[in-house]
Amino acid sequence: MDKFEQTNAEFEQAVAECRALFEKKLHDYRASWRILRPTALTDQLFIKAKRIRSLEVKKVSHVGEGIRPEFVALVNYGIVGLIQLAKGYADTVDISNDEAMALYDKHAQEALELMKRKNHDYDEAWRSMRVSSYTDLILTKIERIKEIEDLSGETLVSEGIDANYMDIINYAVFGLIKMRDEK
Sorting pLDDT into bands at 50, 70 and 90, what band is 76? Predict the structure, then answer.
């Protein structure tokens, strides 16, 4: 197996972990996230990334949960963000669990395909990065999303919110892979 095939397999394994939790939460809460407006979703991503950074700096958790569950949450909320961009937000839960999972799979596959293209061009550079760098890059992407939201999407030269969500998903997956490898 070459290095790119290994990355693809590790990526798919990490997303499968995220998907399994997403499906369980969907069972418990249904697609309650459908009511999230874009700014609330951005703030949820911010909370998760900020907690990772806090734990990286402080090296101790008073809640008992570590960094890994927050990277999983970033993947899942990033995919929710892509779904919300495509469908808009709703006032009630307006999709079935099966539809939510189909949408999850569609956007997870798109993230995988983007990662494959970028990984080819960047030649596995992510493997030489520190997990804390992924955190900072995710926080930067969230700040960019906030600015784009404040501009009502009217950017001059920048990628859209969807591209930032995709990068957040991919950096969070890289974090999951690296944390597993570092154990």
Answer: very high
